[in-house]
Amino acid sequence: MTVADAQREMRSVYQGGAIGQIVSGAIWLASAALGTWAGTRQGIIALVVGGMFIFPITQLLLRLAGRPYALRPDNPLGRLAMQVAFTVPLALPVVGGAALHNVNWFYPACMMIVGAHYLPFIFLYGMWQYGALAAALLGGGLALGLWMPDRFIPGGWLGGAAMLLFALAAWRIHEGEASREAP
Fold first, then answer.
1. Which of 13, 27, 81, 180 could cross-link to 50 by cystine, CB 3.0-4.6 Å?
2. DSSP for 40-68, written as a single string
3. Neighbours of 100 (CB within 10 A)
4. Would you say the pTM of this structure is higher than 0.70?
5. How far is CA 113 from CA 76, 96, 117, in A?
């Protein structure tokens, strides 16, 4: 299997990452809503716990849609994707340290960790657009941490919105590619 074939299968099975981005964005927005109307602690718990379910929920949605939900066993990108996915929970102690110093840095730190984790997606999916998502989250997290260190919630709303907007773009890219490949 060539790299291009592996990337094509990755885009096809996961629809350019659109479904995962919808799930991620929804979890971030639910967390932001809880952080806004229920409290800081509830928002943090929602994002940390909800984040553990992004991949299983994505898999469930693909199955419910009758779509393939896994890469072929000979696709080496599946193993790389799993390794990349584990970078986020392994970096949560950094987020915790930032939040212990200033709880308002929770979402900006998460944005930066998640944004950095999207950089390898450029290769995994063969889509430069993941670089734009990574830059938006990294830059947004840095800007919020520096210029709004006394505000807890903006990063939750902005992170979720960025992921949902990217989901639309990824969906359009996937649909365009699928229509070009259709007989």
1. 27
2. HHHHHHHHHHHHTTHHHHHHHHHHHTT--
3. 10
4. yes
5. 24, 12, 6
